[in-house]
Structures are given as structure tokens and as C-alpha cells.
Design brief:
This protein is mainly beta. It is built from no helices and 11 strands. The strands form 2 sheets. Strands 2, 4, 5, 6, 9, 10 and 11 form a 7-stranded mixed sheet that branches. It is globular, with a radius of gyration of 13 Å.
Length: 116
């Protein structure tokens, strides 16, 4: 079992920055990769960034060049640096861990609101 706790969300003006954190605990060695998703009410959860255990990253086109995913393995923490934020980035942001045996763990989510 892996437990994930996100933090760092909040209200920011358009053009501003925020850094989200996701602290992992439990059976950390079962994590194959980690990712950030976001969800707007009434829409499907969207994968926006992922990072493998080897450090390979991938981004959705909507955030490429503005967001950076990283992980500190010593602290078992995942980060999402978000720059040049836009009102359309407003969403609940979720951390996910892809585990061995094809299961996933999810955090509780943190709200990001970008005002125009």
C-alpha cells in the first residue's frame, strides 16, 4: 500500500506560479512511476505529467513548457512546478503512483484556482 498526500494548492493570479508537492509513504519500493492529473467538475480526469523511476518525463500539450514534474527520491516526494498559470489551469490536482501488479494509488487532491 502506498499513501499519497498533496499540498501546495491555492489561489494565484494569471501569470503566477505555484509548486505542488505529493508526499508518498508506505511500500515506496512498489512504485514504478508517478504522475499528476487534474480534474474540472463535470469533466474526466486529465493526465498532465508523468515521471518514471528512471526520470523520464512526459507532459500533456496543454502544460508543456510551463509545468515541470520532478521527484526527490530521498524524501519520497513528487513535485509539480507550475509557471505562467492561466485561468484554464483551474482544477483539482491529483497525485498518482503507478504500482507493481498494475494497481494505482491516488492522493486526495489539492485545489488550484487561477484568477484572471
Amino acid at each position: 500500500q502506498v499513501q499519497l498526500v498533496e499540498s501546495g494548492g491555492g489561489l494565484v493570479q494569471a501569470g503566477g506560479s505555484l509548486r505542488l508537492s505529493c508526499a508518498a509513504s508506505g511500500t515506496i519500493t512498489s512504485i514504478k512511476a508517478m504522475a499528476w492529473y487534474r480534474q474540472v467538475p463535470g469533466k474526466q480526469r486529465e493526465l498532465i505529467a508523468s515521471i518514471s523511476n528512471y526520470g523520464t518525463t512526459n507532459y500533456a500539450d496543454s502544460v508543456k513548457g510551463r509545468f515541470t514534474i520532478s521527484r526527490d527520491n530521498a524524501k519520497s516526494t513528487l513535485y509539480l512546478q507550475m509557471n505562467s498559470l492561466k485561468p484554464e489551469d483551474t482544477a483539482a490536482y491529483y497525485c498518482a503512483a503507478y504500482l507493481l501488479h498494475n494497481s494505482n494509488s491516488w492522493g486526495q487532491g489539492t485545489q488550484v484556482t487561477v484568477s484572471s
